[in-house]
Amino acid sequence: MPNVKIFVEKALFAQKAPAIEAQLLPMRDLLCSAFQVDISACQFAVLSVLAMPDLPLVNVEMQILPRPERTRELVLSVCHSLRDMLQTATGAHTAIRVSHLDAASYIALK
User: Fold this and answer.
1) Would you tell me the crossing angle of helices 10-35 and 72-90 to the nearest 10 degrees?
2) Distance between CA atoms of 50 and 45, rounded to whole angstroms?
3) Confidence bin at 102 (pLDDT 50/70/90)
4) Can you say whether the dihedral through the CA atoms of 69, 93, 84, 21 is positive or negative?
5) Contact at 8 Å (CB) between 32 and 1?
6) 73 membership: H or E segment, kind and range
7) Which of 2, 50, 56, 98 is the most exposed place for a label (fewest CB within 10 A)?
8) Span 9-59, pLDDT tens digits
9) Of the candidates 9, 45, 51, which has an alpha carbon nearest to the alpha carbon of residue 24?
């Protein structure tokens, strides 16, 4: 937690991979700070995908464990920051979706 998957349209990925990679550490730092977790709690994947040209070319799916201090406002603020970072790196509109994991059933083997 947080589990982050970044899906980038394949042609855009081919052009912007270095810029996206340059944002990964700042994104991780943002998430660790905002959600008050250690680096070891993070999981990132950046994937080149086939995407429809009339939909966002960059999509982020993030899963987090709910906590009282992770308010909707905090999560939205983090999403806005992530979107800004990725839009700057790619020059493309970025969509972000966040879901909460069920803490009672969540298992992570590392």
Assistant:
1) 150
2) 16
3) confident
4) positive
5) no
6) helix 72-90
7) 50
8) 999 999 999 999 999 999 999 999 999 999 999 999 999 999 998 999 999
9) 45
Whole-number Å distance between alpha carbons of 83 and 49: 18
Residues composing the chain: 110
- Closest to 87 (Cα-Cα) out of 6, 30, 11: 6
CA distance 101 to 22: 28
Question: Listing from the earlier edge strand, what are the strands of the sheet with 43-49?
Answer: 43-49, 3-9, 58-64, 94-100
Pairwise CA distance, residues 49 & 67, whole Å: 32
**Tens digits of residue pLDDT in 48-101:** 999 998 999 999 999 999 999 999 999 999 999 999 999 999 999 999 999 999
Residue 107 is predicted with a pLDDT of: 83
Cβ(5)–Cβ(61) under 8 Å?
yes
